Amino acid sequence: MAEMKIIGLIGAGQMGSGIAQLAAVNGVHVWLHDTDTEALTRAHNSISKNIQRLVSKGHLTRDVEADAGRRLRCTSDLDDFHSVDMVIEAIVESEDAKKKLFVQLDKITKGSAILASNTSSISITRLASATSRPSQVIGMHFMNPPPIMKLVEIIKGADTSDDTYNATRCLAERFGKTVICSNDFPGFIVNRILMPMINEAFHALHTGVATKEDIDTGMKLGTNHPMGPLELADLIGLDVCLSIMKVLHAGLGDSRYAPCPLLVQYVDAGRLGRKRGIGVYDYNTRPKEIKP
Ligand code: NAI
């Protein structure tokens, strides 16, 4: 099984930058790409700050910090990916956008490269069908935030080979993660169960069952969840939650998966959660202690 020496990360948002950080501190060279150069600059700054914080807390050494800095390179040119052993894409949760990207990657990357998607819900089999190498396409679903959360969910498409699965699993374990394996169904394991709960919390808020604070406190103290479903939705991004609900609704064909109208309305209003400073909660006025 080939070792992953250099990987490409596409999408320098909250997930892509977190995965790039994980790779760089765990000895893997990373190219980080985004079409938005400001996103690349933000990601580079936040990765440096996060690593500095880990050093100041004694979780990483200064040597690891220096090595990680050398291993991470940002680029707005996808052609730089010609030498990578694997690509992990973490762009917007849209099947069309991801398929277009996979077509490009199929042309640019070397024939042996694995193409992985961090998608939360979209069919790996359909993404693979956009390429000439479906046996080398796989889902590698990190949890948010990637440097902290212990789980990686690996999704096998219809044609994903055992070699591709083993190499992907090995990389996740090198990052210190526990792996679970899902077959290719809408939302896989985690979001098949989590997202309907979040959607139901929006229904509870929408129909006046309770305030947002009481819904979140109820689920935190009543069921021992570390975060309430509405504050978790704000962390994930309400646009991402809505995209996942649409995939569940279309793919499972049951009206109980229809996105709550309040979730749709917040996204329409640009209230996307913490990344925009406002979602269900307003983070410009909210106390800081709920941030992870
Ligand atoms: P985000 O909105 O924070 O970042 C997405 C980034 O992708 C942006 O910087 C955008 O400029 C870039 N981008 C969009 N189209 C591009 C393209 N064609 N080429 C290059 N860059 C492009 O999104 P986030 O939250 O990081 O999510 C990314 C992916 O990870 C989605 O598929 C999402 O479903 C998945 N995911 C999200 C989680 C979350 O909690 N937010 C958890 C696990 C997976």
UniProtKB/TrEMBL annotation:
<feature type="site" description="Important for catalytic activity">
    <location>
        <position position="141"/>
    </location>
</feature>
<dbReference type="Pfam" id="PF02737">
    <property type="entry name" value="3HCDH_N"/>
</dbReference>
<dbReference type="InterPro" id="IPR006176">
    <property type="entry name" value="3-OHacyl-CoA_DH_NAD-bd"/>
</dbReference>
<comment type="similarity">
    <text>In the central section; belongs to the 3-hydroxyacyl-CoA dehydrogenase family.</text>
</comment>
<feature type="domain" description="3-hydroxyacyl-CoA dehydrogenase NAD binding">
    <location>
        <begin position="7"/>
        <end position="184"/>
    </location>
</feature>
<dbReference type="InterPro" id="IPR006108">
    <property type="entry name" value="3HC_DH_C"/>
</dbReference>
<keyword id="KW-0560">Oxidoreductase</keyword>
<comment type="similarity">
    <text>Belongs to the 3-hydroxyacyl-CoA dehydrogenase family.</text>
</comment>
<dbReference type="Pfam" id="PF00725">
    <property type="entry name" value="3HCDH"/>
</dbReference>
<comment type="pathway">
    <text>Lipid metabolism; fatty acid beta-oxidation.</text>
</comment>
<dbReference type="GO" id="GO:0004300">
    <property type="term" value="F:enoyl-CoA hydratase activity"/>
</dbReference>
<feature type="binding site">
    <location>
        <position position="93"/>
    </location>
    <ligand>
        <name>NAD(+)</name>
    </ligand>
</feature>
<dbReference type="InterPro" id="IPR006180">
    <property type="entry name" value="3-OHacyl-CoA_DH_CS"/>
</dbReference>
<dbReference type="GO" id="GO:0016491">
    <property type="term" value="F:oxidoreductase activity"/>
</dbReference>
<dbReference type="InterPro" id="IPR008927">
    <property type="entry name" value="6-PGluconate_DH-like_C_sf"/>
</dbReference>
<protein>
    <recommendedName>
        <fullName>3-hydroxybutyryl-CoA dehydrogenase</fullName>
    </recommendedName>
</protein>
<feature type="binding site">
    <location>
        <position position="98"/>
    </location>
    <ligand>
        <name>NAD(+)</name>
    </ligand>
</feature>
<feature type="binding site">
    <location>
        <begin position="11"/>
        <end position="16"/>
    </location>
    <ligand>
        <name>NAD(+)</name>
    </ligand>
</feature>
<feature type="binding site">
    <location>
        <position position="34"/>
    </location>
    <ligand>
        <name>NAD(+)</name>
    </ligand>
</feature>
<dbReference type="InterPro" id="IPR036291">
    <property type="entry name" value="NAD(P)-bd_dom_sf"/>
</dbReference>
<feature type="domain" description="3-hydroxyacyl-CoA dehydrogenase C-terminal">
    <location>
        <begin position="187"/>
        <end position="283"/>
    </location>
</feature>
<dbReference type="InterPro" id="IPR013328">
    <property type="entry name" value="6PGD_dom2"/>
</dbReference>
<dbReference type="InterPro" id="IPR022694">
    <property type="entry name" value="3-OHacyl-CoA_DH"/>
</dbReference>
<keyword id="KW-0520">NAD</keyword>
<feature type="binding site">
    <location>
        <position position="120"/>
    </location>
    <ligand>
        <name>NAD(+)</name>
    </ligand>
</feature>
<feature type="binding site">
    <location>
        <position position="275"/>
    </location>
    <ligand>
        <name>NAD(+)</name>
    </ligand>
</feature>
<dbReference type="GO" id="GO:0032787">
    <property type="term" value="P:monocarboxylic acid metabolic process"/>
</dbReference>
<feature type="binding site">
    <location>
        <position position="144"/>
    </location>
    <ligand>
        <name>NAD(+)</name>
    </ligand>
</feature>
